[in-house]
Design brief:
alpha+beta, 6-stranded antiparallel β-sheet, 11 helices, 6 strands, about 60% helix, globular
């Protein structure tokens, strides 16, 4: 069995490495073909362009790892079944369970690597890539202006559309500028012609328009509208750099966090959700009590108990304490305490006759129900629930995607045994179908969980459970089939039995 296990692992190693390299290279070439034109148009240094595509590789590897396991299993098992090696193993007393053990062991090893890769390397790479993309976006936006397309000159603030753009002189025809810098007031500027140029400080962008109109809208009052005609209008967009300047931001999205950070942020969101729920309920009850003249209820100060860090996060924290040195803290010199009495020192407690006098406590005046205040707390509660769900979805995804490496072994083996002579067509066709179904289910589950329709666990693990169950059923059927021949040999055996 040791020789057999080594043989099986060796037969799977080369297809796995080849599939991982080929799939990652194919996706990388697709990204290069999609993004290279925009990056070269901004005049970036070649080192920045190489860094951009290098930072996209971890995301691609996280996707192609599990797919490579499926391709390797389909290719190797179908080839061994077609060459009757599996028939010889079964004749020698090797069951499907013994045949599956080394494959499941290898799949578990790849799943562990995928888990550590997705928790430690991928979030850091995504964070650096987002910072790099933000810096690239601010570099020479005039190079990326395209005709008949709404181009974002300043993200979320200024957009521009032009029918004609001369890339040599940056003169434009039939220009429309959408200004969303103010939340309440919206402005749309129409110009017959114009041009784009940088201000003398090389940081601001000047959009000069000729012969046009300015339309001002009020988003809160639809009856307010103002129209202004102009012969020459200059729109100054501040903070748009003309050279590449690297910027670092400390903010991290949910895809830029590890498991421990996701757990911490999810717990904070759960606490905030419970706090706003209590505030909304208390405001409603006190408002109703105030209507009937009852005193208001006291606010509940008990904190919400949430699940603490898991064993994995505690182990990482322990390793961090062991490996990294402790942070030094500056100590202040103790100041001598003055023993002189203060000039205003006196008895703090009231006199005895004042203490013995009865105290009259006036209850607080009841407040009417404030629907706007309750609505604010309800909106905050809902946003906290949505944020907690997004963190929980990303947390479950970091566990579900590595587990797919084991699920694809369970699916790939019975599928390859069912079609032993499928060859390369089986590998490509079945592999793409299974992988497409898996990731469509993953994306659909994530969308439903973000909208609070499904629980994060069910949304991320439903596809794994479904495919794993189908794989186990297929293995049971193959085990019952035993060494019964397939195809033409089976039909010949039926005919002989009938005769």
């Amino acid at each position: 069995m040791k020789i057999l296990r080594r043989y099986l692992l060796r037969q799977h190693l080369l297809p796995f490495v080849f599939a991982l390299s080929a799939l990652t290279s194919f996706e990388l070439l697709r990204q290069i073909a999609k993004r290279l034109g925009d990056l070269l148009g901004k005049g970036l240094p070649w080192t920045v362009i190489l860094e951009f595509f290098a930072l996209t590789i971890p995301f691609l590897v996280a996707i192609t790892l599990s797919m490579s396991v499926l391709v390797a299993v389909l290719f190797t098992v179908s080839r061994m079944a077609g060459d009757h090696e599996l028939t010889a193993m079964r004749a020698g007393g090797v069951s499907i369970g013994a045949f599956m053990r080394p494959l499941l062991l290898a799949g578990t090893g790849v799943a562990l690597v995928s888990f550590l890769f997705g928790d430690q390397i991928l979030p850091r790479a995504n964070h650096r890539l987002r910072n790099l993309m933000s810096s690239i976006y601010r570099t020479k936006p005039t190079f990326s202006l395209k005709e008949h397309i709404i181009n974002e000159v300043k993200r979320g603030k200024i957009s521009l559309r032009a029918a004609q753009i001369d890339q040599a002189t940056y003169r434009m025809r039939d220009v429309t500028i959408y200004s969303l810098e103010q939340s309440q007031r919206k402005r749309v500027i129409y110009g017959d012609s114009g041009y784009v140029a940088f201000a003398p400080n090389r940081e601001d962008l000047a959009l000069t328009l000729y012969d046009g109109l300015i339309h001002d809208y009020d988003s809160e009052d639809p009856e307010v509208f103002q129209q202004t005609a102009f012969e020459r209008q200059i729109v100054l967009v501040k903070g748009v750099a003309s050279e590449f300047v690297r910027q670092e931001q400390s903010f991290r999205g949910d895809r830029e966090m590890g498991i421990c950070e996701l757990e911490e942020n999810r717990n904070d969101a759960v606490r905030e959700e419970a706090f706003n729920r209590r505030k909304a309920d208390l405001t409603e009850r006190n408002g109703l009590r105030g209507l009937v003249g009852l005193p208001p209820l006291a606010e509940d100060t008990d904190s919400v108990v949430v699940q603490g860090p898991g064993l994995y996060c505690r182990a990482l924290a322990f390793l961090k304490r062991v490996i990294t040195p402790e942070e030094l803290e500056a100590q202040e010199r103790e100041r001598p305490v003055s023993r002189r009495p203060r000039p205003d020192a006196g008895p703090r407690s009231p006199p005895a006759e004042a203490r013995s006098a009865p105290q009259i406590v006036t209850p607080p005046r009841p407040r009417p129900v404030r629907a706007s205040e309750v609505r604010v707390f309800r909106d905050r509660e809902h946003s906290s629930r949505v944020r907690a769900a997004s963190y929980a979805v990303e947390l479950q995804k970091k566990l579900a995607i590595p587990a797919a490496c084991i699920v694809f072994v369970l699916v790939g083996v019975p599928l390859a045994l069912r079609f032993p002579r499928g060859g390369l067509g089986l590998v490509l066709g079945a592999g793409m179908i299974v992988f497409a179904i898996y990731y469509v289910g993953l994306i659909a589950g994530e969308s439903l969980a973000d909208r609070l329709t499904l629980s994060p666990f069910l949304a991320m693990w439903a596809t794994n459970i479904l495919m794993g169950g189908l794989g186990v059923i297929g293995l049971v059927l193959e085990r019952r089939a035993g060494t019964v021949p397939r195809g033409r040999a089976r039909r010949q055996q039926r005919r002989a039995g009938a005769q």
